[in-house]
Amino acid sequence: GKDALKSLPWRDILRLRKSWGIMLARFFTDAVWWFYIFWLPNYLNSQRGLNIKEIAVAVPFIYIFAILLSNLGGWFSGHLIKRGISEIGARKLTMFISVLCMPVSALAVIAHDIWVVVFLVGLACGAHGSWSANMFALISDQFPTRAVGSITGLSTFTGGVGGLFFSTVAVGYIVSFLGYTPIFVLMGILHPVGFLFIYFLVSREADTETIH
Questions:
Q1: Which of 32, 46, 128, 148 has the smallest number of CB atoms closer than 10 Å to its CB?
Q2: pTM score
């Protein structure tokens, strides 16, 4: 009936642990993508000495790499599910692999060769793309159809708040006073922090929670 198609009230969604797991994970991790989107050209110019033409060559490589890894992450979790692994197990494993890439990518700040920098930043963006693809799939797996839009909206809001704080306020302050090295370190640890919320709050035990 029509009632089955109505979006669920936020109050029903906010009482679930898995809702908070997803919202908090996005709060900490969305900022990484926005950091590389907004600050990368400035970093390549001010810290690496690239001019506009050189940046215009480097940045597309990063985004192509990001697209490829994002698609690979989506395929890999689907492949695991076809092999008999549970949906939640496949999503978490793929997200964990993505998480492992993030501290490695932070080494870009100390790399000497500019193409190593490009590769490592591409790895960060690609790993985040894989993470995000599985995040949205996890939402679809864990929530009834009429709750998917609401939890996606709520988590996008928290991700936006985190992105605004980490990629503008925090980054702007830290870059001004401490330089880029602490920022790359921060961007390398936000996904591991976010994964803890996914691991502990989005669980098989949380599957017993119901929305009425």
A1: 46
A2: 0.90
